[in-house]
From TrEMBL:
Residues 1-21 form the signal peptide. Pfam families: SusE, SusF_SusE. InterPro entries: SusE, SusF/SusE-like_C. Residues 274-363, 370-459, 467-556 form the Outer membrane protein SusF/SusE-like C-terminal domain. Residues 27-125, 144-243 form the SusE outer membrane protein domain. It comes from Mariniflexile aquimaris. This is SusE domain-containing protein. The keyword Zinc-finger does not apply. The keyword Transcription regulation does not apply.
Length: 558
Protein backbone atom coordinates (compact mmCIF):
# COMPACT_ATOMS: atom_id res chain seq x y z
CA UNK A 1 0.00 0.00 0.00
CA UNK A 2 2.81 2.41 0.93
CA UNK A 3 4.57 1.64 -2.31
CA UNK A 4 1.55 2.75 -4.36
CA UNK A 5 1.26 5.92 -2.36
CA UNK A 6 4.94 6.76 -3.05
CA UNK A 7 4.51 6.11 -6.77
CA UNK A 8 1.46 8.36 -6.91
CA UNK A 9 3.45 11.09 -5.09
CA UNK A 10 6.24 10.94 -7.60
CA UNK A 11 3.68 11.09 -10.42
CA UNK A 12 1.99 14.19 -9.05
CA UNK A 13 5.40 15.88 -8.45
CA UNK A 14 6.53 15.13 -12.00
CA UNK A 15 3.34 16.55 -13.47
CA UNK A 16 3.77 19.68 -11.35
CA UNK A 17 7.33 20.19 -12.61
CA UNK A 18 6.24 19.69 -16.22
CA UNK A 19 3.45 22.24 -15.92
CA UNK A 20 5.81 24.69 -14.18
CA UNK A 21 8.46 24.27 -16.87
CA UNK A 22 5.89 24.88 -19.57
CA UNK A 23 4.72 28.04 -17.87
CA UNK A 24 8.34 29.33 -17.55
CA UNK A 25 9.14 28.61 -21.19
CA UNK A 26 6.12 30.49 -22.36
CA UNK A 27 7.21 33.69 -20.40
CA UNK A 28 10.78 34.03 -22.03
CA UNK A 29 11.04 36.72 -24.78
CA UNK A 30 14.29 36.94 -26.89
CA UNK A 31 15.15 40.46 -28.20
CA UNK A 32 18.09 42.02 -30.21
CA UNK A 33 19.62 45.55 -29.73
CA UNK A 34 18.30 48.39 -31.83
CA UNK A 35 20.34 49.17 -34.93
CA UNK A 36 22.93 51.89 -34.08
CA UNK A 37 25.16 54.48 -35.75
CA UNK A 38 27.69 55.00 -32.96
CA UNK A 39 31.25 56.28 -32.44
CA UNK A 40 33.17 54.09 -30.04
CA UNK A 41 34.76 55.79 -27.07
CA UNK A 42 38.56 55.98 -27.64
CA UNK A 43 40.97 54.43 -25.17
CA UNK A 44 42.88 57.71 -24.88
CA UNK A 45 41.12 61.03 -24.68
CA UNK A 46 44.09 63.30 -23.81
CA UNK A 47 46.12 64.26 -26.89
CA UNK A 48 49.45 66.15 -26.70
CA UNK A 49 50.56 66.87 -30.25
CA UNK A 50 54.25 66.13 -30.76
CA UNK A 51 55.79 68.50 -33.33
CA UNK A 52 58.80 66.20 -33.61
CA UNK A 53 56.58 63.41 -35.03
CA UNK A 54 54.40 65.33 -37.52
CA UNK A 55 53.25 62.27 -39.50
CA UNK A 56 52.31 60.18 -36.50
CA UNK A 57 48.59 59.62 -35.76
CA UNK A 58 47.10 62.23 -33.44
CA UNK A 59 44.15 59.94 -32.76
CA UNK A 60 42.17 57.13 -34.40
CA UNK A 61 38.41 56.68 -34.10
CA UNK A 62 36.15 53.80 -35.16
CA UNK A 63 32.39 53.29 -35.27
CA UNK A 64 29.50 50.91 -35.86
CA UNK A 65 26.86 51.69 -38.48
CA UNK A 66 23.83 49.43 -38.64
CA UNK A 67 21.48 52.20 -39.67
CA UNK A 68 22.57 54.34 -42.58
CA UNK A 69 23.86 51.80 -45.06
CA UNK A 70 26.40 54.45 -46.07
CA UNK A 71 29.95 53.85 -47.26
CA UNK A 72 31.10 57.48 -46.99
CA UNK A 73 31.44 59.44 -43.75
CA UNK A 74 32.42 63.01 -42.90
CA UNK A 75 34.32 63.65 -39.66
CA UNK A 76 33.55 66.95 -37.94
CA UNK A 77 35.20 68.79 -35.05
CA UNK A 78 33.89 71.64 -32.89
CA UNK A 79 34.87 73.47 -29.74
CA UNK A 80 31.42 73.00 -28.19
CA UNK A 81 29.18 69.97 -27.86
CA UNK A 82 26.38 71.67 -29.81
CA UNK A 83 28.65 72.01 -32.85
CA UNK A 84 27.80 75.67 -33.31
CA UNK A 85 30.64 76.05 -35.80
CA UNK A 86 31.61 72.59 -37.06
CA UNK A 87 34.90 72.08 -38.92
CA UNK A 88 35.34 69.18 -41.33
CA UNK A 89 38.60 67.43 -40.50
CA UNK A 90 38.36 64.53 -42.93
CA UNK A 91 36.35 61.79 -44.62
CA UNK A 92 36.38 58.01 -44.56
CA UNK A 93 35.04 55.18 -46.73
CA UNK A 94 35.49 52.63 -43.96
CA UNK A 95 34.50 52.34 -40.31
CA UNK A 96 37.60 54.06 -38.92
CA UNK A 97 39.48 57.33 -39.36
CA UNK A 98 42.99 58.53 -38.45
CA UNK A 99 44.29 62.09 -38.50
CA UNK A 100 47.99 63.02 -38.36
CA UNK A 101 49.62 65.35 -35.82
CA UNK A 102 50.27 67.99 -38.48
CA UNK A 103 46.75 67.95 -39.90
CA UNK A 104 45.03 68.13 -36.54
CA UNK A 105 47.34 70.92 -35.43
CA UNK A 106 46.41 72.91 -38.54
CA UNK A 107 42.67 72.46 -37.95
CA UNK A 108 43.10 73.56 -34.34
CA UNK A 109 44.94 76.65 -35.53
CA UNK A 110 42.13 77.39 -37.98
CA UNK A 111 39.75 77.24 -35.03
CA UNK A 112 41.87 79.91 -33.23
CA UNK A 113 42.80 77.52 -30.45
CA UNK A 114 45.82 78.72 -28.45
CA UNK A 115 48.93 76.57 -28.23
CA UNK A 116 50.08 74.69 -25.14
CA UNK A 117 46.60 75.04 -23.62
CA UNK A 118 44.46 72.02 -22.70
CA UNK A 119 41.38 72.50 -24.88
CA UNK A 120 38.24 70.40 -25.24
CA UNK A 121 37.28 69.44 -28.79
CA UNK A 122 34.22 67.43 -29.81
CA UNK A 123 34.15 64.95 -32.69
CA UNK A 124 31.20 63.38 -34.54
CA UNK A 125 30.34 61.64 -37.82
CA UNK A 126 27.92 62.85 -40.47
CA UNK A 127 26.55 60.86 -43.40
CA UNK A 128 23.53 62.07 -45.28
CA UNK A 129 20.96 63.20 -42.72
CA UNK A 130 22.41 60.97 -40.02
CA UNK A 131 24.68 62.11 -37.19
CA UNK A 132 26.55 59.92 -34.74
CA UNK A 133 27.03 60.44 -31.05
CA UNK A 134 29.71 62.92 -29.89
CA UNK A 135 33.04 62.02 -28.27
CA UNK A 136 35.41 64.34 -26.41
CA UNK A 137 39.19 64.86 -26.65
CA UNK A 138 41.41 67.11 -24.51
CA UNK A 139 44.11 68.41 -26.86
CA UNK A 140 47.23 70.58 -26.56
CA UNK A 141 48.53 71.99 -29.84
CA UNK A 142 51.92 73.46 -30.73
CA UNK A 143 52.43 76.84 -32.42
CA UNK A 144 53.44 77.30 -36.05
CA UNK A 145 52.93 81.04 -36.53
CA UNK A 146 56.08 83.08 -35.78
CA UNK A 147 56.14 86.08 -33.44
CA UNK A 148 55.95 89.53 -35.05
CA UNK A 149 57.89 92.56 -33.81
CA UNK A 150 55.50 95.47 -33.27
CA UNK A 151 58.00 98.10 -32.11
CA UNK A 152 60.31 99.68 -33.13
CA UNK A 153 60.13 99.72 -36.91
CA UNK A 154 62.88 100.13 -39.50
CA UNK A 155 62.90 103.92 -39.17
CA UNK A 156 64.23 103.79 -35.60
CA UNK A 157 67.76 105.02 -34.83
CA UNK A 158 69.65 105.76 -31.63
CA UNK A 159 72.89 107.48 -30.67
CA UNK A 160 74.21 105.75 -27.54
CA UNK A 161 75.62 107.97 -24.81
CA UNK A 162 78.03 107.20 -22.00
CA UNK A 163 76.30 109.88 -19.89
CA UNK A 164 73.06 107.84 -20.10
CA UNK A 165 74.74 104.51 -19.39
CA UNK A 166 71.99 103.17 -17.10
CA UNK A 167 69.03 104.61 -19.01
CA UNK A 168 66.96 102.60 -21.48
CA UNK A 169 68.26 102.93 -25.04
CA UNK A 170 66.03 100.44 -26.84
CA UNK A 171 62.75 98.66 -26.14
CA UNK A 172 61.55 95.87 -28.41
CA UNK A 173 57.96 94.56 -28.24
CA UNK A 174 56.32 91.73 -30.17
CA UNK A 175 53.13 89.76 -30.56
CA UNK A 176 52.92 85.97 -30.38
CA UNK A 177 49.40 85.22 -31.70
CA UNK A 178 49.22 81.51 -30.87
CA UNK A 179 50.20 81.79 -27.21
CA UNK A 180 47.48 82.49 -24.63
CA UNK A 181 47.47 83.42 -20.97
CA UNK A 182 46.60 79.85 -19.95
CA UNK A 183 49.59 78.22 -21.60
CA UNK A 184 50.84 75.25 -19.59
CA UNK A 185 54.42 75.65 -20.89
CA UNK A 186 56.73 78.65 -20.45
CA UNK A 187 57.86 80.41 -23.63
CA UNK A 188 61.40 81.82 -23.61
CA UNK A 189 61.85 84.76 -25.95
CA UNK A 190 65.45 85.30 -27.08
CA UNK A 191 66.38 88.63 -28.67
CA UNK A 192 69.12 88.34 -31.29
CA UNK A 193 71.16 90.99 -33.12
CA UNK A 194 73.74 90.99 -35.91
CA UNK A 195 75.41 93.42 -38.26
CA UNK A 196 72.90 94.18 -41.02
CA UNK A 197 73.21 92.07 -44.15
CA UNK A 198 75.10 89.20 -42.51
CA UNK A 199 72.02 86.92 -42.27
CA UNK A 200 72.79 86.49 -38.53
CA UNK A 201 75.87 84.41 -39.39
CA UNK A 202 77.71 85.80 -36.35
CA UNK A 203 74.76 86.83 -34.22
CA UNK A 204 74.67 87.92 -30.60
CA UNK A 205 71.92 87.12 -28.10
CA UNK A 206 71.30 90.39 -26.26
CA UNK A 207 68.85 89.01 -23.71
CA UNK A 208 65.86 86.78 -23.00
CA UNK A 209 62.49 87.12 -21.28
CA UNK A 210 59.18 85.33 -20.71
CA UNK A 211 57.16 88.46 -21.51
CA UNK A 212 56.52 90.18 -24.85
CA UNK A 213 58.81 93.14 -24.31
CA UNK A 214 62.54 93.63 -23.72
CA UNK A 215 64.54 96.74 -22.82
CA UNK A 216 68.28 97.38 -22.75
CA UNK A 217 70.41 100.24 -21.44
CA UNK A 218 72.82 102.51 -23.32
CA UNK A 219 75.82 100.88 -21.62
CA UNK A 220 74.82 97.28 -22.34
CA UNK A 221 73.71 97.98 -25.90
CA UNK A 222 76.90 99.93 -26.62
CA UNK A 223 79.01 96.90 -25.68
CA UNK A 224 76.88 94.70 -27.92
CA UNK A 225 77.17 97.09 -30.86
CA UNK A 226 80.97 97.12 -30.54
CA UNK A 227 81.06 93.35 -30.02
CA UNK A 228 78.91 92.81 -33.11
CA UNK A 229 81.15 94.81 -35.45
CA UNK A 230 79.97 98.39 -35.00
CA UNK A 231 82.48 101.24 -34.90
CA UNK A 232 82.41 104.08 -32.36
CA UNK A 233 80.94 107.40 -33.54
CA UNK A 234 79.72 105.85 -36.80
CA UNK A 235 76.07 104.91 -37.40
CA UNK A 236 75.82 101.21 -38.26
CA UNK A 237 72.76 99.21 -39.26
CA UNK A 238 71.88 96.17 -37.19
CA UNK A 239 69.30 93.44 -37.72
CA UNK A 240 67.17 92.30 -34.77
CA UNK A 241 64.83 89.33 -34.47
CA UNK A 242 62.98 87.40 -31.75
CA UNK A 243 63.27 83.65 -31.22
CA UNK A 244 60.39 81.98 -29.35
CA UNK A 245 61.78 78.84 -27.72
CA UNK A 246 59.84 76.06 -26.01
CA UNK A 247 61.32 73.03 -24.29
CA UNK A 248 58.79 70.26 -23.83
CA UNK A 249 58.63 66.48 -23.78
CA UNK A 250 58.72 66.68 -27.59
CA UNK A 251 62.05 68.53 -27.56
CA UNK A 252 62.97 72.13 -28.37
CA UNK A 253 60.79 74.11 -30.77
CA UNK A 254 62.05 77.49 -32.01
CA UNK A 255 60.05 80.02 -34.01
CA UNK A 256 61.84 83.07 -35.38
CA UNK A 257 60.29 86.41 -36.21
CA UNK A 258 61.00 88.48 -39.29
CA UNK A 259 63.88 90.89 -38.73
CA UNK A 260 63.86 94.63 -38.25
CA UNK A 261 66.83 96.83 -39.17
CA UNK A 262 67.74 99.86 -37.08
CA UNK A 263 70.67 102.29 -36.99
CA UNK A 264 72.82 102.51 -33.85
CA UNK A 265 75.81 104.72 -33.10
CA UNK A 266 78.17 103.53 -30.36
CA UNK A 267 80.55 105.52 -28.20
CA UNK A 268 84.18 104.60 -27.54
CA UNK A 269 84.59 101.81 -24.99
CA UNK A 270 87.16 102.63 -22.29
CA UNK A 271 90.21 100.39 -22.64
CA UNK A 272 92.05 99.58 -19.40
CA UNK A 273 95.72 100.50 -19.09
CA UNK A 274 96.53 97.03 -17.79
CA UNK A 275 94.97 93.60 -17.56
CA UNK A 276 95.77 90.71 -15.23
CA UNK A 277 94.67 87.07 -15.25
CA UNK A 278 93.37 85.41 -12.11
CA UNK A 279 92.03 81.87 -11.79
CA UNK A 280 92.52 78.28 -10.72
CA UNK A 281 96.04 78.24 -12.14
CA UNK A 282 97.26 80.78 -9.53
CA UNK A 283 94.89 79.94 -6.69
CA UNK A 284 92.67 82.95 -7.56
CA UNK A 285 95.33 85.25 -6.16
CA UNK A 286 94.14 88.64 -7.35
CA UNK A 287 97.38 90.28 -6.15
CA UNK A 288 99.64 88.17 -8.42
CA UNK A 289 101.27 90.86 -10.58
CA UNK A 290 103.13 88.19 -12.61
CA UNK A 291 99.82 87.49 -14.32
CA UNK A 292 99.92 90.71 -16.36
CA UNK A 293 98.88 90.58 -20.01
CA UNK A 294 100.97 92.04 -22.82
CA UNK A 295 99.32 95.25 -24.08
CA UNK A 296 99.85 95.98 -27.77
CA UNK A 297 98.69 99.57 -27.29
CA UNK A 298 95.75 99.16 -29.66
CA UNK A 299 93.21 97.56 -27.36
CA UNK A 300 94.50 93.97 -27.60
CA UNK A 301 95.91 92.12 -24.58
CA UNK A 302 97.75 88.79 -24.84
CA UNK A 303 98.99 86.20 -22.35
CA UNK A 304 100.40 82.68 -22.67
CA UNK A 305 99.32 80.38 -19.86
CA UNK A 306 99.41 76.68 -18.95
CA UNK A 307 96.08 75.30 -17.71
CA UNK A 308 94.81 72.01 -16.37
CA UNK A 309 91.57 70.56 -17.67
CA UNK A 310 88.63 72.26 -16.00
CA UNK A 311 90.59 75.35 -14.93
CA UNK A 312 88.66 78.61 -14.95
CA UNK A 313 89.82 82.23 -14.98
CA UNK A 314 88.80 85.83 -15.53
CA UNK A 315 90.53 89.20 -16.00
CA UNK A 316 90.96 92.19 -13.70
CA UNK A 317 92.17 95.65 -14.77
CA UNK A 318 93.94 96.35 -11.45
CA UNK A 319 96.16 93.82 -9.72
CA UNK A 320 94.87 93.24 -6.19
CA UNK A 321 91.29 94.37 -6.87
CA UNK A 322 88.17 92.55 -8.09
CA UNK A 323 86.55 95.81 -9.13
CA UNK A 324 85.74 96.02 -12.83
CA UNK A 325 86.54 92.34 -13.50
CA UNK A 326 85.85 90.86 -16.94
CA UNK A 327 84.47 87.44 -17.84
CA UNK A 328 82.46 85.64 -20.48
CA UNK A 329 78.94 86.54 -21.55
CA UNK A 330 76.71 83.70 -20.30
CA UNK A 331 74.70 83.52 -23.53
CA UNK A 332 77.33 84.56 -26.11
CA UNK A 333 80.49 82.42 -25.97
CA UNK A 334 83.66 84.35 -26.73
CA UNK A 335 82.12 87.72 -25.84
CA UNK A 336 83.58 89.87 -23.05
CA UNK A 337 81.34 91.43 -20.37
CA UNK A 338 81.79 93.05 -16.96
CA UNK A 339 78.31 92.54 -15.53
CA UNK A 340 76.65 89.18 -14.84
CA UNK A 341 79.65 87.46 -16.37
CA UNK A 342 80.83 83.89 -15.90
CA UNK A 343 84.36 82.51 -15.56
CA UNK A 344 86.13 81.35 -18.70
CA UNK A 345 86.71 77.59 -18.56
CA UNK A 346 89.40 75.50 -20.25
CA UNK A 347 88.39 71.93 -21.12
CA UNK A 348 91.79 70.35 -21.90
CA UNK A 349 95.15 70.42 -20.18
CA UNK A 350 97.78 72.30 -22.18
CA UNK A 351 99.49 75.56 -23.08
CA UNK A 352 97.24 78.33 -24.39
CA UNK A 353 97.40 81.84 -25.73
CA UNK A 354 94.62 84.05 -24.36
CA UNK A 355 93.76 87.07 -26.52
CA UNK A 356 91.45 89.79 -25.20
CA UNK A 357 90.33 92.37 -27.79
CA UNK A 358 88.56 95.46 -26.45
CA UNK A 359 87.97 96.67 -30.01
CA UNK A 360 85.43 93.88 -30.46
CA UNK A 361 84.82 93.08 -26.76
CA UNK A 362 85.77 89.49 -27.44
CA UNK A 363 88.34 86.94 -26.32
CA UNK A 364 89.98 83.83 -27.72
CA UNK A 365 91.60 80.89 -25.93
CA UNK A 366 93.76 78.92 -28.39
CA UNK A 367 95.82 75.82 -27.59
CA UNK A 368 99.50 76.07 -28.57
CA UNK A 369 101.17 72.89 -27.36
CA UNK A 370 102.60 72.31 -30.84
CA UNK A 371 103.09 74.22 -34.07
CA UNK A 372 103.81 73.09 -37.63
CA UNK A 373 104.77 75.03 -40.74
CA UNK A 374 103.03 74.47 -44.06
CA UNK A 375 103.57 76.35 -47.30
CA UNK A 376 105.04 76.49 -50.78
CA UNK A 377 108.30 74.96 -49.55
CA UNK A 378 106.55 71.63 -48.83
CA UNK A 379 103.78 71.90 -51.43
CA UNK A 380 101.26 72.83 -48.72
CA UNK A 381 101.32 69.31 -47.30
CA UNK A 382 99.54 69.82 -44.00
CA UNK A 383 100.43 66.29 -42.88
CA UNK A 384 104.21 66.85 -42.99
CA UNK A 385 105.24 66.24 -39.37
CA UNK A 386 108.87 67.14 -40.16
CA UNK A 387 107.73 70.77 -40.22
CA UNK A 388 107.38 70.95 -36.44
CA UNK A 389 108.62 74.05 -34.62
CA UNK A 390 110.85 73.91 -31.55
CA UNK A 391 109.63 75.39 -28.27
CA UNK A 392 110.51 75.35 -24.59
CA UNK A 393 106.89 75.93 -23.57
CA UNK A 394 107.29 79.68 -23.10
CA UNK A 395 104.97 80.63 -25.95
CA UNK A 396 107.82 81.12 -28.43
CA UNK A 397 108.25 78.72 -31.37
CA UNK A 398 111.31 78.63 -33.63
CA UNK A 399 112.07 76.82 -36.86
CA UNK A 400 114.84 77.15 -39.46
CA UNK A 401 113.57 76.92 -43.02
CA UNK A 402 114.91 77.53 -46.53
CA UNK A 403 112.56 79.45 -48.85
CA UNK A 404 112.56 80.46 -52.49
CA UNK A 405 111.70 84.05 -53.39
CA UNK A 406 107.93 84.54 -53.38
CA UNK A 407 107.20 81.57 -51.14
CA UNK A 408 104.54 81.91 -48.47
CA UNK A 409 103.52 79.83 -45.46
CA UNK A 410 101.33 79.63 -42.37
CA UNK A 411 101.22 77.65 -39.12
CA UNK A 412 99.10 74.73 -37.90
CA UNK A 413 98.60 73.67 -34.25
CA UNK A 414 97.84 70.10 -35.37
CA UNK A 415 99.73 68.26 -38.11
CA UNK A 416 97.30 67.01 -40.74
CA UNK A 417 94.55 69.51 -39.97
CA UNK A 418 93.78 72.98 -41.31
CA UNK A 419 91.67 73.78 -38.25
CA UNK A 420 92.69 76.83 -36.22
CA UNK A 421 95.56 77.73 -38.58
CA UNK A 422 97.59 80.90 -37.95
CA UNK A 423 98.78 83.49 -40.46
CA UNK A 424 99.43 87.21 -40.76
CA UNK A 425 96.96 89.97 -39.98
CA UNK A 426 95.85 91.49 -43.29
CA UNK A 427 96.26 95.08 -42.11
CA UNK A 428 99.11 94.78 -39.57
CA UNK A 429 102.37 93.30 -40.89
CA UNK A 430 104.23 90.86 -38.62
CA UNK A 431 101.15 90.43 -36.42
CA UNK A 432 99.71 86.94 -35.95
CA UNK A 433 96.05 86.30 -36.74
CA UNK A 434 93.94 83.15 -36.50
CA UNK A 435 90.74 84.43 -38.10
CA UNK A 436 90.60 86.07 -41.53
CA UNK A 437 94.38 85.75 -41.81
CA UNK A 438 96.61 85.79 -44.86
CA UNK A 439 99.68 83.70 -45.68
CA UNK A 440 103.05 84.99 -44.49
CA UNK A 441 105.12 86.07 -47.52
CA UNK A 442 108.86 85.59 -48.11
CA UNK A 443 110.32 88.22 -50.41
CA UNK A 444 113.95 87.11 -50.74
CA UNK A 445 115.27 83.56 -51.16
CA UNK A 446 117.34 82.27 -48.24
CA UNK A 447 117.48 80.25 -45.07
CA UNK A 448 115.65 81.90 -42.21
CA UNK A 449 115.10 81.49 -38.50
CA UNK A 450 111.32 81.85 -38.21
CA UNK A 451 110.21 82.97 -34.73
CA UNK A 452 106.56 82.84 -33.67
CA UNK A 453 105.94 84.68 -30.39
CA UNK A 454 102.45 84.14 -29.01
CA UNK A 455 103.28 86.31 -26.00
CA UNK A 456 103.14 89.36 -28.29
CA UNK A 457 101.21 87.86 -31.22
CA UNK A 458 104.16 88.60 -33.49
CA UNK A 459 106.48 86.78 -35.85
CA UNK A 460 109.86 87.48 -37.41
CA UNK A 461 112.04 86.07 -40.21
CA UNK A 462 115.78 86.53 -39.67
CA UNK A 463 118.30 85.21 -42.19
CA UNK A 464 120.51 82.49 -40.71
CA UNK A 465 124.23 83.44 -41.05
CA UNK A 466 126.59 81.13 -42.89
CA UNK A 467 129.38 82.08 -40.48
CA UNK A 468 129.47 83.34 -36.90
CA UNK A 469 132.02 85.27 -34.84
CA UNK A 470 132.32 86.04 -31.11
CA UNK A 471 132.91 89.64 -30.10
CA UNK A 472 133.02 91.07 -26.60
CA UNK A 473 135.16 91.94 -23.64
CA UNK A 474 137.47 88.92 -24.15
CA UNK A 475 138.81 90.64 -27.31
CA UNK A 476 138.15 94.23 -26.15
CA UNK A 477 135.03 94.44 -28.43
CA UNK A 478 137.20 94.56 -31.53
CA UNK A 479 134.92 93.27 -34.29
CA UNK A 480 137.88 93.02 -36.68
CA UNK A 481 139.58 90.35 -34.54
CA UNK A 482 136.44 88.48 -33.48
CA UNK A 483 137.23 84.73 -33.39
CA UNK A 484 135.18 82.42 -35.61
CA UNK A 485 132.76 79.73 -34.43
CA UNK A 486 132.98 76.23 -35.82
CA UNK A 487 130.00 75.48 -38.04
CA UNK A 488 128.76 72.05 -36.94
CA UNK A 489 125.81 71.96 -39.33
CA UNK A 490 123.44 74.38 -41.00
CA UNK A 491 122.44 76.85 -38.30
CA UNK A 492 124.50 75.23 -35.50
CA UNK A 493 127.78 76.86 -34.29
CA UNK A 494 130.17 76.22 -31.37
CA UNK A 495 133.32 77.83 -29.98
CA UNK A 496 135.55 77.26 -26.95
CA UNK A 497 136.33 80.47 -25.07
CA UNK A 498 138.12 81.44 -21.85
CA UNK A 499 136.00 83.90 -19.84
CA UNK A 500 136.32 85.93 -16.69
CA UNK A 501 133.38 86.36 -14.33
CA UNK A 502 132.64 89.85 -15.68
CA UNK A 503 132.90 89.13 -19.40
CA UNK A 504 130.12 89.89 -21.86
CA UNK A 505 129.83 89.14 -25.56
CA UNK A 506 127.57 88.79 -28.60
CA UNK A 507 127.62 87.24 -32.07
CA UNK A 508 128.47 88.66 -35.52
CA UNK A 509 127.58 87.14 -38.91
CA UNK A 510 130.45 89.04 -40.56
CA UNK A 511 133.85 89.67 -38.98
CA UNK A 512 134.60 93.38 -38.91
CA UNK A 513 130.93 94.48 -39.14
CA UNK A 514 128.31 95.22 -36.51
CA UNK A 515 125.48 94.71 -38.98
CA UNK A 516 122.85 92.19 -37.97
CA UNK A 517 124.57 91.31 -34.70
CA UNK A 518 122.88 88.78 -32.39
CA UNK A 519 122.57 88.71 -28.61
CA UNK A 520 120.51 87.48 -25.69
CA UNK A 521 116.77 88.01 -25.55
CA UNK A 522 115.71 90.44 -22.83
CA UNK A 523 112.51 88.48 -22.21
CA UNK A 524 113.26 84.80 -22.77
CA UNK A 525 116.17 83.19 -20.99
CA UNK A 526 118.59 81.37 -23.29
CA UNK A 527 117.10 82.65 -26.54
CA UNK A 528 118.86 84.69 -29.23
CA UNK A 529 117.48 87.75 -30.96
CA UNK A 530 118.81 90.15 -33.56
CA UNK A 531 117.01 93.31 -32.47
CA UNK A 532 116.88 94.97 -29.05
CA UNK A 533 119.21 92.32 -27.69
CA UNK A 534 121.31 92.15 -24.53
CA UNK A 535 124.93 91.09 -24.32
CA UNK A 536 125.45 87.52 -23.15
CA UNK A 537 126.92 87.48 -19.62
CA UNK A 538 129.66 85.08 -18.53
CA UNK A 539 128.50 82.53 -15.94
CA UNK A 540 131.91 82.81 -14.18
CA UNK A 541 135.62 82.42 -14.70
CA UNK A 542 136.65 79.44 -16.80
CA UNK A 543 136.82 77.97 -20.27
CA UNK A 544 133.39 77.34 -21.80
CA UNK A 545 131.82 75.83 -24.88
CA UNK A 546 129.49 78.43 -26.34
CA UNK A 547 126.78 77.01 -28.63
CA UNK A 548 124.47 79.03 -30.87
CA UNK A 549 121.61 77.03 -32.44
CA UNK A 550 119.51 78.89 -35.02
CA UNK A 551 117.31 75.81 -35.51
CA UNK A 552 115.99 76.35 -31.99
CA UNK A 553 116.75 80.04 -31.51
CA UNK A 554 118.91 79.35 -28.46
CA UNK A 555 122.40 79.82 -27.06
CA UNK A 556 124.18 78.06 -24.21
CA UNK A 557 127.42 78.62 -22.27
CA UNK A 558 128.61 75.38 -20.66
Amino acid sequence: MNLYIKKLGFLFLSLALIFTACETQESIEITSPDPAFKLQEPGISNVFLNFALPDNPAFTISWNDEVTGSSSYTVEMATDSDFTTPIVIGTSNSNNFTISVTDLNQYLSAASIKSYTETAIYVRLVTGSFMSNVILFQVSKFPTTVPSITSPNNTFSAVLEDAKANETALTITWNDPEIGENSIIAIDYEIEMALAGTDFAASTVIGSTNSNTFSITHDALNDLVIGSGGKPDIASNFDFRVNAIVNSASGELTRTSAKITIALTAYIVPIPDNLFMVGDHNGWNKGDASQQFYNNGAGVFVKVQAFNAGNAFKMIPTSGSWEGDYGEDKVNPGKLVQDNEQNITVTETGNYVVIVDFNTLSFKVAKIDNLYMVGDHNNWNNNDATQKFNTTGNGVFVRMQTFAAGNSFKMLPTSGSWSNDWGENKTSPNVLEQDNEQNIPVTTAGTYMVTIDFNTLSYSLREVPQNLFLVGSPNSWNNGTAPAFTKVSEGLFTISQALTASDEFKFLPVQGSWDNDWGASKKYNGMIVRDDENNVASPGAGTYTITVDFTKGTYSVN
